[in-house]
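Tokens for chain A. Residues wanted.
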């Protein structure tokens, strides 16, 4: 009897391993740029809280294409130190990710504070169930603006695979 149970258990384990994941993961690995223009892409709502609508671009220069916006809040949670807590949705409006979003959060500071990392904790559209990281560094900063170079490594399951072809939003 014990050998029969062992065979059943081992067969179940082998089946589970060979069946793969219920939701196949895809990987997005890309470099993006966020342009933070202090006077036009954000507004203060309190002394240490700012609503952001920073432009996402596909390159660092002025001629780079805008692909969306980073929309959310950044909060100077510890004024005695430099970092700001940032919570944002990266909303893609153009390009291959148009109609998708990434939910991102983490700390950021000034150019002299070195590179940093943000967590990707969700996504929609093509990037459903996204999770991963964004390594960033500030490549330009002056009195008018700041540019973040963002190296993205995200795993996701697109909504078609997850929903089995069922419409994911009203009207689809």
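Reply:
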């Amino acid at each position: 009897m014990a050998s029969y149970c062992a065979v059943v258990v081992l067969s179940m384990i082998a089946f589970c391993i060979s069946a793969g994941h219920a939701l196949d993961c895809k990987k997005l690995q890309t470099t993006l740029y966020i342009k933070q223009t202090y006077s036009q892409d954000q507004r203060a709502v309190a002394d240490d809280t700012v609503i952001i609508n920073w432009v996402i671009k596909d390159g660092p220069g002025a001629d780079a294409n805008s692909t969306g916006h980073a929309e959310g809040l950044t909060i100077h949670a510890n004024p005695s130190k430099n970092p700001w807590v940032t919570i944002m949705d990266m909303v893609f409006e153009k390009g291959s990710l148009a109609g998708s979003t990434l939910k991102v959060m983490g700390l950021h500071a000034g150019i002299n504070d070195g590179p940093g990392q943000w967590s990707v904790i969700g996504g929609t559209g093509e990037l459903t169930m996204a999770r991963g990281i964004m390594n960033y560094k500030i490549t330009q900063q002056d009195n008018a603006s700041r540019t973040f170079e963002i190296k993205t490594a995200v795993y996701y399951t697109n909504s078609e695979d997850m929903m089995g072809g069922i419409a994911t939003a009203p009207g689809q």
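The CA atoms of residues 2 and 155 lie 41 Å apart. Residues 15-20 have pLDDT under 50 and may be disordered.
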